[in-house]
Amino acid sequence: MLYLAASSAGLPTATASGEIQMTVHQVNQDGAGPFKCDMSADGGNTWQDAQVTKNVPGALLGLSLATAKDFPLNVQMPDGMTCAAGPNGDACIVRCRNSTPAGPFGSCAVFAATPAAPAPAPAPAAPAPVAPAPAAPAPAAPVPVTPAPAPAAPALIAPAPVAPGPVAPVTPAAPALVAPVSPAAPAIPAAPAPAVPVAPAAPAPARAPAPARAPAPAPARAAPATPAAKKPKGAGAKKGAA
Asked: 85-95, pLDDT tens digit by residue?
């Protein structure tokens, strides 16, 4: 609903005297005044007539020559009205319409009544009397102090000059005697070790030649076969058989 969206966005409030001050933007000629307004404190369930304290100019039929122009429109809340709609329970609806034959044209707006002024805070209790602080003792008069004289600086005594004594001559030290060193005898080369004679190897014994193999005898040739006698054919053969 209208008052739900308006409540979440933050509601405008009426003045301390309960007046709603609005601005009407007239678009064309039949959007002029005068306007009649009523209000609802319960979200549009019931309505009460409200007095228009400042109206939009116009003829009786809601016509004028003004176009695209803003005009103030102020409405007074009915006596004793308490806004109780909306999610926070503090919203009212105002509805204004003109009387043009093509309309009516108008609009609705959601507002909240001015909250009651908070009760004044109780005056703070008067603080308990504070006992006066004891007077500070008078400062003691300063006692003049004569500074002690500074000790005199000791006189500087210059040392008496001392005559230089004779210097004994320095005897040079005798050079140290170094015994001659005999040259080392040359090293004697070691005698080579005698070689051990190696006995010659014994010759291998001669082998007898292998005996020659005799040639194998040639195989005997077979005797030619004798052809068998052919039997006569015909009558002679039969006779012989008988």
From this structure: 998 899 999 99
Residue 126 placed within a domain? no
Cis peptide before 192 (omega within 30 of 0): no
pLDDT score for 3: 45
Q: Has residue 142 been placed in a domain?
A: no
Q: How many residues does the chain have?
A: 242
Give the count of domains, the chain. Answer: 1
CA-CA distance, 196 to 163, in Å (whole number)?
A: 96
The residues pairing with 92 across neighbouring beta strands, listed in sequence order, are 111
d(C-alpha 10, C-alpha 91), whole Å: 11
pLDDT of residue 203: 64
Residue 181 pLDDT grade (very low, low, confident, very high; cuts 50, 70, 90): low
| pTM as predicted | 0.46
- The residues, ordered by sequence, that sit 6+ positions from 42 with a Cβ below 8 Å of its Cβ are 84, 85
In a domain, 162, yes or no: no
CATH of the domain at 73: 2.60.40
| Range(s) of the domain holding residue 24 | 2-112
95 touches 105 (CB < 8 A): no
Which residue type is seen at 26? Q
